[in-house]
Predict the structure.
Amino acid sequence: MLAPDAFFTLYSGLDREGPGLPEDVLWALGVAGTPEAAAICDAGCGSGADTVTLAEARPGARITAIDITPSLAAEARARAARFGDRVRVREGNMADLPGKFDLVWCAGAAYFLGLEAALRGWRGALAPGGRIAFSEPVYPHPPTAAMLDFWQDVPGSVTDLDGIIARIAAAGYRSLGHRLLIGAPWAAYYAPLEARIAKLRAAQPSPELSLVLDSSAREIAAWQASPDDIAYALFVVEPA
Ligand SMILES: C[S@@+](CC[C@H](N)C(=O)[O-])C[C@H]1O[C@@H](n2cnc3c(N)ncnc32)[C@H](O)[C@@H]1O
């Protein structure tokens, strides 16, 4: 078991905690047709990188961001403070979304609930015409040993695109569009993390922290060895 305090030390102050780029958020807003004065939820917001992008892209929107990790929710709250009351950050469980939203945005977090359970559970949190955008681990081509190894710790099973589309249908939704997140969105996550690891290693880390640094460095090295194999799929879906 890796120490939670060491994770906090490694991740605190990073821009984001999973792969993604602002352009992915903008793409999803366009596919979802999210209106200017929308109610938007950033479920599993982490330190709030996408919360900020959503708030900037829809200046008339009200945004609720939720994360279960207190330190990350606090970081997101500080980053979003400049938007005033229209962006609220809550520490809490995204299984229980408060309100009716035109868009539920969930980057790299739905698999913590299980994709089907998340989609089923969020149906009651959608306003009429509301949509959900989520990113989910995917096999972009038949799985290699590197892909199977990379995803071995992910809760639930990783599938190809057809497998995700089948889970979307099983949860009572249909897809409005999808795109693969390969390469640059992962570099946006891993480059700052790699720099942080180097900085912490230079400062005589504790044994607990060293274990966490080694584990994250192995993950980054695995991605660097096979960047075209490791992907998320970003989907926009609506109730069927
Ligand atoms: C891989 S990170 C992604 C964070 C952020 N969306 C991003 O892309 O930078 C997953 C996030 O989901 C949060 N999380 C996991 N389970 C959750 C739950 N049940 N409710 C709310 N947040 C949760 C974690 O605390 C973490 O911040």
